[in-house]
Design brief:
The complex is a heterodimer of chains A (206) and B (163). With 206 residues, chain A is of the alpha+beta class. In chain A, 42% of the residues lie in helices and 28% in strands. Classes of the chains: A alpha+beta (206), B alpha+beta (163).
């Protein structure tokens, strides 16, 4: 997909930096919540076919815990914080001392806690972007689902569906102790967001 | 009996299978997995539909598998070309879930809208809906065996069911 006619490499770099700043703040927030160091991998920005996006978290059928927020305002888009089941369990245990009550399910309280964690992290991600760009970013109420990655992530692709078969994804992996993935942040800005975002960051417009 | 070969159908994709082939699509959320089946010739078709109507398309070259209205027409044409009789086709559908609970604008209702417009497109082609497993708030993976026309539906919460 030809999303950018000019300066595509430069624009991808700018988006990578956007992910770096947003996820950096979110990682700091998570680190404070857990009271332990959280590292993050360098964000990647990629334009991927729909089917390959779920591959980033283990494939369309992999069961993940996903917190989703729709972002409205100047830069509309979709934001996901995604964890594997193990990571979600660990987070609940480390943060709240919740031991699994149901072997393969989550209680209302656990889901609500996950949702709130996602909300805090997404809030720091988005507010750092809003501070940087001076744009208005208003996130929706967060919502949580524990289900197949493909089913969950398809919500982030609808805005791209009307124009092609690929979507632009800014993703960052959180690491605990340099190795183990703790979670993933996916920001999928709507296609019409880019001009506003680039304008605010001083990138020459087409 | 040998194990049928699996024909994978990706997102916004469609395909057909016969002679024991098994059609499969994974991770349906708000998307629709539509199958059409001609029992006499044992030819099956499957589409992974993403959006309700091609009228909202902003792409130059429309991918017919992506939209409910165009996917039904395209799938019927492909099946007919492969030897199925359109008047014998019966439809089964799965998906159209609402994965996230809150109501934040129109895009959240995409699942139910996909179901409605897929059914409307089937009705326009005179194809009866034999069975469906739609709605709810869970993801689904589906498989159809071209020998039987049985649609196998798997979900995280409810296990396996057949329609």
């Amino acid at each position: 997909m030809e999303l950018f006619d000019r300066d595509a490499d430069f624009k991808m770099d700018v988006l990578r930096e956007v992910g770096n700043i947003g996820a950096g703040h979110a990682a700091t927030a998570l680190s404070k919540l857990l009271d332990k160091p959280i590292d993050m991998a360098v964000p990647t920005v990629s334009i991927l076919p729909f089917d390959e996006i779920a591959d980033k978290v283990g494939g369309a059928e992999a069961v993940v815990a996903a917190i989703y927020l729709r972002v409205e305002g100047d830069v509309p888009g979709n934001l996901f914080f995604i964890m594997s089941q193990d990571q979600a369990r660990r987070l609940l245990r480390d943060l709240l001392g919740f031991e699994a009550v149901e072997a393969d399910g989550y209680t209302e309280m656990e889901l609500s806690a996950l949702c709130e964690i996602g909300n805090i992290l997404a809030g720091s991600y988005l507010s750092s972007l809003a501070d940087l760009t001076r744009l208005r970013l208003s996130p929706s109420v967060p919502s949580v689902a524990v289900d197949m990655a493909g089913a969950v992530l398809s919500y982030g692709l609808l805005q791209y569906g009307v124009m092609g078969e690929d979507a632009l994804l800014i993703d960052t992996t959180f690491l605990e102790g340099k190795h183990e993935a703790e979670g993933y942040f996916f920001l999928i800005p709507d296609p019409e967001s880019f001009n506003k975002l680039f304008g605010a960051l001083g990138v020459p417009l087409e | 009996m040998t194990e049928g070969t699996i024909v994978k159908v990706g997102m916004a994709d469609l395909n057909i299978a016969s002679a024991g082939g098994i059609l499969r699509t994974t991770g349906l959320g708000s998307c629709i997995g539509l199958t059409l089946y001609d029992a006499q010739t044992q030819i099956a078709g499957m589409a992974h539909i993403m959006l309700p109507s091609s009228q909202i398309a902003r792409e130059g070259q429309i991918n017919p598998a992506k939209y409910a209205d165009t996917a039904v027409v395209e799938l019927v044409a492909r099946l007919e070309k492969a030897g199925a009789n359109p008047s014998r086709l019966v439809a089964k559908l799965a998906g159209g879930a609402q994965m996230f609970a809150f109501a934040a604008g129109d895009s959240m209702r995409i699942g139910p809208r996909n179901v409605e417009s897929t059914k409307a497109a089937l009705a326009a082609c005179g194809i009866p809906v034999a069975a469906e497993d739609t709605g709810g708030s869970h993801g689904r993976t589906i498989e159809m065996d071209s020998r039987t026309g049985i649609l196998n539906i798997r979900s995280v919460q409810f296990g396996v069911k057949e329609i």
